[in-house]
Amino acid sequence: MKITCVLLLLSILFCGLTTWAGSPSDDGCIKKCHIIKPYVKNSDNPNLLVSKHKAQGLGCESCHERDAATVKEEEKRYKSKDYSDPIEQRQYEAEFCLKCHESYQAVAERTSHLKEEWGRNPHESHLGEIDCSECHKMHGPSKFVCAECHTANWKERLPQGWVTE
Ligand code: HEC
Ligand code: HEC
Ligand code: HEC
Ligand code: HEC
User: Fold this and answer.
1) How far apart are CA 129 and CA 6, in angstroms?
2) Which residues form ligand 1's pocket by a CB distance below 6 Å?
3) Contact 107/122 with Cβ under 8 angstroms?
């Protein structure tokens, strides 16, 4: 079991991170896997969006679920050392987030007050329904792309951890 975890993690990914949900101490594989460790460590960094999700009780597996076939493929890749270190950067489309966040309109409603406060709603603009990842990063700093063209005191307005360039 432990060996399987190590294989999976090294071959990019995550193994049963049941730690947050339940069993408190079975994090052996996490400690051993150098390419995953930073992600686990940074999941408590309040500047990163992943920490807000963790605070809601969402573990790594709630976003990075893999089926048995994928797991097998990962093991194969590990054995043939077919994985990258540093780890490959991923990017997901909006539907990845909308599995939990309902719809673009629903998100736009949550920030509709910004239309008045900022003169613009980040989720409703002439750019249309662009991917969430254009702005939101889970494990790195989020970037407010509207600031590329619209200048304002964004640093003061944006939540902690955001950047504009
Ligand atoms: C709420 C969803 C969510 C949770 C929870 C989550 N991730 Fe991620 N993960 C993402 C997204 C989105 C990306 C794409 C890169 C980004 O946005 O930072 C990603 C990318 C990754 C990558 C690929 C490398 C990269 O930077 O693109 C790794 C490795 C990773 N996550 C590990 C973890 C680990 C370990 C945990 C638990 C500590 C975790 N993730 C929890 C959404 C999540
Ligand atoms: C597995 C479900 C799930 C996924 C997938 C998910 N989220 Fe969340 N997210 C939540 C929950 C639950 C909350 C807390 C309740 C809320 O604010 O809606 C949350 C909260 C947030 C918040 C508010 C954080 C704060 O400051 O309190 C943002 C922003 C957010 N998510 C963005 C994203 C983005 C962008 C993605 C895709 C990269 C994503 N989420 C993927 C479940 C998810
Ligand atoms: C153009 C940049 C941008 C894009 C694209 C974007 N967001 Fe946001 N989002 C923001 C900013 C900026 C905030 C913070 C606003 C604030 O609350 O101060 C935010 C806040 C949020 C919040 C918290 C709202 C609240 O209750 O305060 C959620 C949830 C969220 N975004 C989800 C998403 C999802 C899901 C997507 C894709 C469907 C998405 N966002 C696309 C910029 C963006
Ligand atoms: C590539 C440059 C560019 C980007 C990126 C951009 N805009 Fe704009 N935006 C413009 C231009 C040009 C106008 C027209 C300005 C005018 O008529 O004075 C405009 C006009 C607007 C207006 C009309 C009112 C005003 O402020 O003049 C709103 C609202 C707006 N943008 C919101 C947004 C939001 C929200 C984002 C990010 C999701 C965004 N824009 C990203 C270039 C951009």
Assistant:
1) 38
2) 14, 36, 39-40, 43, 50, 53, 58, 60, 62-64, 87, 89-92, 133, 137-140
3) no
How far is the C-alpha of 136 from the C-alpha of 68, rounded, in Å?
29
Q: What is the pLDDT of residues 74-132, one digit of tens each?
A: 667 767 778 788 888 999 999 999 999 999 999 999 999 999 999 999 999 999 999 99
Given a contact cutoff of 8 angstroms between Cβ atoms, the answer to whether 20 and 63 are in contact is: no
Testing ligand 1's pocket by substitution, the residue of 44, 50, 93, 163 carrying the most ligand atoms inside 8 A of its CB is 50
Q: At which residue do the structure tokens 């996490």 appear?
A: 30
Closest-CA residue to 119 (of 163, 153, 83): 153
Q: Which two tokens stand for residue 76?
A: 């194969």
How many angstroms separate the CA atoms of 9 and 37, rounded?
10
Which ligand sits closest to the CA of 41? 1
Residue 107 CA: which ligand is closest?
3
Instruction: Identify the residue whose C-alpha is closest to ligand 1 atom 40.
Output: 60
* Pick from 91, 95, 80, 86: nearest CA to 39: 86
Please state, as a whole number, how many other Cβ atoms lie within 10 Å of the Cβ of residue 7. 20
Question: CB–CB of 142/136 below 8 Å?
Answer: yes
